[in-house]
Fold these 4 entries.
Entry 1:
Amino acid sequence: MELSEALYRCNKCGFCQASCPFYQLTREEWANARGRLRLVREALEGRLAPSDKYALRLYRCFMCGACSATCPSGVPAEEVLLKTREELARKGFIPSPLEELGSRVISTGNISGEDKSLRLSWVQNLDFPVRRNGKPDFVYFVGCVSSLYPQAYGLPQSMVYLLEKRGVNYSVLGEEERCCGYPLLINGQVELALEIAKKNIAAVKETGAKVLITTCPSCYRMWKKFYPELLGEDNPVEVVHSSQWLAEAGLPLKPLEEKLTYHDPCDLGRGSGVYEEPRAFLKSIPGVGLVEMPLTRAEALCCGGGGNVESLEPSAGEGVAKMRLEQARLVGAKAVVTACPQCRRTISRASRGTGLKVVDIVELAAKLLTD
């Protein structure tokens, strides 16, 4: 859809207010899709000159896609923001914290600016060697958060443990893995995202693998949806999210007598349409009672960790995560299960004092796997 057509399709009904996590935090009109689209329209028609303040309004968004999913007029607000950010980036209006984020990704290949030699730090306390050579059938694309944030190391450790136990012929890229480029894409730095996509694809092709599996929904969406769009060609590998693999793996699991609820990651659910596979796996666990929160699937509330907002306004995410935890408490859940390292990280930080556990679905599977 053309930008102008999307802008004029908005009938200003305000449905996006109820679904927008940033609006729930600020209660300010600019924070929902209706307000942001009005700003973009004013700029497009020459009544508002682009400025740092204007840009900040358009970058203070979790890019969760809830507004697009609930819009009765079908306005693709997320697409509008991506196109507008691309134009802002070309004109030099990226907020400085996000420009620094982009520079780290390009210079070091990851979001935290770490040396690439640290990409495999998460393997150090495993009691088996992680495979890096040979001719794998699967490549496990770990992602920046799981590779470089110690509190997330349990996720890739659990994933390779499950792959080992199921006898999967896999490999990891190690130092050859770079950020998937999603932070660059949503910054509006599309050409830089394309550059890093080419490098990742070349590294995966070199392995000869036929399947790429990832535990990160943003990496999954980037590989599955945006890489083909950026390059104008099909992926060289089948792209699978870990929750999809779990749903088909037929793992023998110990019983768990506990009431769980599932949090849909935005890039996996609304962004990629993966809703049923994580739930199918959770329902396969003997004894588990799976309950749904008031907002679920396409209407699920964002965790507060998306859109590069953490780099721009670190405190914003915690407020949204607390709202999500309250929804879990209301349905009597004892634990929140998600399928995303960033969701797990963001919700966990807000969970102190709630009595709720927060766990990734892969870690749960590894814990319950029978010998």
Entry 2:
Amino acid sequence: MTVVAATPTANGHKPFPQFIQEFKAQLKHLFHIRSDINQLSIKRGMPPFILREIMSSTPLSTYIPEQYGGRGGHIHEGLALAAAASYESLPLSLGFGINWALFLQPTGKYGEEKIKAKVFTDFLTNQKMGGLMITEPGYGSDALHMQSSYTTKDGNYHLQGTKHWAGLTGWADYWLLTARQKNKNGKLKRDIDFFICDVSAPEQNIVVEEFYENLGVYLLPYGRNHIDVKIPSGQKLVPQSTGIKMMLDLLHRSRMQFPGMAMGFLQRMLDEAVQHCQERQVGGKSLFNYDQVQQRISHLQSAYTICSAMCFNSSQKAGVENDLAPHGLEANAVKTYVTDLMQSSAQSLLQLVGAKGYRLDHIAGRAIVDS
């Protein structure tokens, strides 16, 4: 039999099926041999060597268009990467999702050519990361009334304000910052604008005032940030109509891509439940043989199947070539339902595992707070 070597992509990347299998093996080695994910997950942050090893395979290239040296930004591949990460670590998958849907996709769709080329090259060659800052202490769901503002002077945008609950706080090298323009009378305009902030550049440093003790997802940092930066004019995103519609487009796309993160998580819940119930003996027989146990496992199987269908749906609709601003009902329903599936599946696993699951250093207990 002749063995045919896999052909690299146009940019020299390994074929995606080969890459994703090697990436899964890498995560398994990192989280179960070189370290213990159960112990890592009870402490804040991520050891530098873990993050360095994960980023060494340039997983974020999956989210970057081919013309900039990436794998192409294909939705089905992005969902598969999110699933591979969430099988081992939901916080890791969430971190990938932040980079993907909340930074790289909007930058690629709405950014000016010069800054796009710089950002994508930085991600590919220097393993940089990016995030999004919208939420403010007094304006969470009421984002349209955010008080962060900007003025223009000498070709720069001067942004001032406070942002919090941005995933990757203190870690990200780039941020999409949101603000409303302040007019000459000191009043804020209705529309919202987006700016790419390079924290390594002069006058673009973001000060972290506080790191939060977030409940769950310990590996990801969150906090409160003080914004007082000057952004060059070429780093402002260019909306196709209004900034608010641009924000809806990127947020709805993010929600449509949630099933990728859920996919690996639900598969892990199912695998853990089946393994535990097959091995656990109660009353002289396997726990798996009890009808109530089988009912719970059937619910886990159903969640996995539903999420698979959602992934297929998203792979057909969530591409950046589509305007998702008008599709709020579907996007919000997808996120709401799939996160409910994650939480209910975590509850089922916890009930099946019993006492030892009520610990942060066990996947069942951790799944409750992480989901």
Entry 3:
Amino acid sequence: MHRLILIGIVLLTALAGTARPPVTRAAENAPSTARTPLAQGHPTCAGVNTAQPSTPECDALMLSRPYPNVSPLPVDFGVIAGTSFIRFNTTQVPLYDKPGGAQVDTLSAGYTYVAVRQVSGNWAEVRPGRWVDLSIARFAAPSAFTGVLINGLDMPFAWVLWRHCATNVPTGARNCEGAGQLNRYQLVNIYATVNVNGWNWHLIGPGLWTNQQNLSIVYPTAPAQFGGQWVAVNTYEQNLIAYNGSAPAMATLVSTGIENGEWDTDPGTYTVRLKLENGPMDGGAGGDDFYSLDQVPYHMYFHGLVALHGAYWHDSFGYTHSHGCVNMTISDSKWIYTNWVAEGSTVYVYDGE
């Protein structure tokens, strides 16, 4: 998240003077080549077009390879496993000395999630000796979505972003029967692409087409070239891909900054400066956009106070949502934090439109 006020002397010291620095443009961090044109399908389906929306060769490929060559990551809540979080439906939260006891303080809550220390009946302890009435709160439900390990990639694949029906041909009749009913987070191959009136339509199965707006697409070709392990964040597709050199190893959906001129996630080439396994985030004190979040997991700071990190408070992955940070599910952020990103790793943020 963008413009964070982070609690903790270690974090503030490590990041002193780094809030919103210029984008790194050093030669060693710059992409080595211009972006390669993206593959729009599988070569076997090259004969597919608006006049001929299927070919025997492409039909055979779709039947033999109906699912992307990937393996889903396991759900793993890591450092916050077993912890519950609540948000309040009022901005002034009474704090009591015990369940049903005397009010001793008031919590000013904006977009606030607090960790629950223990529960007693309809009461929760949120700070030592400070209890809240759960009738004015609701529990967070961390997303169980996970990204995928990429076993091989010779054509694009995508996640379906929302439940909708495919069409039988580009711009054609809706097909809601059987495989034509597409569900959020469903994985599909992209066998071919045609452009109709400026919009890309993607062939995702036999007689199944969908518009580019309905998908978050992962392409076989890296958007830049860096050595070793690095990550690319595509703010158009709202996804992240972990690369080893030019080879994609893992991919997932993310939520970057809301594009309002203030909270955008800025494009550029960055270096991870600090990793922190768990800690609070807050910002916007005194404003309408005030937020305070307990125990945010797996911070990886790459642009001042902008970070890759886990988010337990929403399930909007594939859409912008944050104040500038790159939100991931807890499972995905743990995998990236543990297996891929080190201090000094490159984070490449770009608009893939």
Entry 4:
Amino acid sequence: MKKDDLETPALLLDINVLQSNIRMMADYLKDKPVKLRPHAKCHKTPIIAHMQVKAGAKGIAVAKLGEAEVMANAGINDVYIANQVVQQSKLERLAALNEYSTVSVAVDNLTVIETLSKIAVKKNVNVKVIEEIDVGLNRCGVPPGKAAIDLAKKIVQLKGLIFEGVMGWEGHAAFMPDLNKRKEECHRCYKKLVETVNEMRREGIEVNTVAAGGTTSFSIAAEYPGINEINPGSYIFMSLMHRLEGVPFKHSLTVLTTVVSRPTKDRAIIDGGVQTFSTFWSYPKPKDLEGVEVKELHMEHGILKLKDPNIDLRVGDKIEFIPAYPDTTINLHDKFYIVRGENVESVWKIGARGRVD
């Protein structure tokens, strides 16, 4: 089947670019003392996770317990939930996963940690925990320094748990457009993280993992002394929000739409609205089509503004769009259409789509 024969809207994944992005990251890390644990919250697809592991990733990260269940049940044997899991029923599910896989979790609360310890002991499993440290994002995490060290001391005393290490997400710094300013602020974050780790080690606490870094800060983190794991996710797809200096990856993800109306010379309507595209960050942008922009997104319609009324857009024409943000767009779709050039080669189910549990 040809790409233009697909019924729309359709989520397209260029397999050549996807593979190239995966290789580029793997090649970059070959001579560095840093491991890759890519974040799968963006793709939610076991086959892509397997591709990343085959290319050298130590495992994958996810954002939700439900995503971890999908990945573990698909044979991914090292999964890290980079988020807090606090409900007792969910902690029971987490411990159960560790009966046949290795699923670690971020922690920052002693009561939750103690509950998980009791559940793990009861199920006769050991659960790896990674202490989240707030390095400046002001979201989850223990403050760096004494508070983080004191919590680590308590974790290592608890049965059923393995203190694996720490993570710090520099999300507030990672999207600074200016590369030098981005590096400067990221370095401030990493300094807090690494100094805390050094003090933990002086206190006799073994710290195996020191994780940071996303798609827009992957190389900044990988080249900072003391960081030994990075967790980028969107590098395999790229998007409008990741188009920053120092980010070398290419766009592999697009949404194919059809023009369904051309009511005026300066306006065209496509069959994709907010139930096709996420509006997080911004509206999508047409791929390889100048002079056309998304003016509005309704539920099932996209309103396009044509800067030049002579642009030849007719009802039935196909337009590809680059999403502003991949994660939230992908979560609106059930499947990827895998394309190579103009040909559709396969269809991949997005296995963890909707698994926000």
